[in-house]
Amino acid sequence: MNLSKINLNLLVALDALLKEKHVTRAGKRLHITQSAMSNLLKQLRDVFQDELFVRGQASRMVPTPRALELAQPVQAVLLQATSLFAQPEKFNPKTARQVFTIGMSDYSEFILLPPLMQAITQQAPGIDIVVKHINYLNDEALFENSTIDLAIGIYPIIPENLIAETLFTEEAFCLGWQKNPLLKKPVNLATFAKAKQIVILYYENRAELFSEQYLNQQGFTRRAVATVLHTLAAIYSLPGTDLITVVLEKVAKKFMKVLPLAMQPAPYAYPQINIHMVWHAKHRNSSAHQWLRQQIKAISKKL
After folding, report:
1. Are 281 and 153 part of one and the same domain?
2. What are the angstrom distances between the C-alpha of 68 and each of 4, 12, 43, 65, 165?
């Protein structure tokens, strides 16, 4: 049978007739007229190829065996339909069981993941977090195919159909070994360009880096002794060498507490660096997703 040709409201009418066993009272139950109810009964008889109800005493409608067979299945279908169209339960972090997959660079992992895990273990013990290393967003595919639920990072290019919110801003600094003579005094552009560097790819290609573009515009070419995707690997490579790298302030200051490092402002006016939280519109009204985003925003405000 082709369901597209069937008015599923007929099941509601059949349920009312089975309960009332009276056309007028069934109509009142559904807030429709007697004639409208009689028309629905006619349609039901056509669909099921059975009289379903025959007249009894005092206008009472007596159900046929076929009608009685249909009573339980009809109630089950209507119960499922009611559940289907009901408002979803509000997300309760204390009882929820869910896995969130977050795309992060190692920078955002280092800065945001520890306080996020503290919040989750305290507030939502049934929530699990999976982190995927994402340095840049080429399109919406990672979100559309549910590879990730949201992403946190610099992301200079954010695909049009994604939603982005700035969590906080960062500044860029030169970082090197504490005994590196280059960092004993302010670093100018010429000194910076000549220095042996570890270049961290915050973007997909080195040519997209602001520092790379600025140096080229000023007629300088720098030597990248190493080009890496990971901020932490670059920082741990600095002690005991004459290498420098450009890192973001929050992570630089944390590592200066545990490693023999020195920090200098970048020798050029770096544009404001925005750390974004990005998600797909399909999660806009998800109460679970909204809760997670709120936790991340609250943590970001404290940084």
Report:
1. yes
2. 25, 15, 17, 5, 57
Is residue 186 in a domain? yes
Q: Are strands 98-104 and 127-133 parallel, antiparallel or unpaired?
A: parallel
State pTM to two decimals: 0.74
Distance CA 186, CA 193 (A): 14
SS3 42: helix
Q: Tell me which DSSP letter residue 258 carries.
A: T
Give yes or no: residues 147 and 104 share one domain.
Answer: yes
Could you report the per-residue pLDDT of 223-270, keeping only the tens digit for each?
899 999 889 999 999 999 999 999 999 999 999 999 999 999 988 887
Its domain, for residue 105, covers 98-169+274-302
The whole-angstrom separation of Cα 20 and Cα 67 is 13
Rounded to 10 deg, the angle between the 287-302 and 106-123 helix axes is 110
Residues 217 and 74 in one domain: no
How many Å is the maximal CA-CA distance in the chain? 107
- Asked if residue 177 and residue 164 are part of one domain, the reply reads no
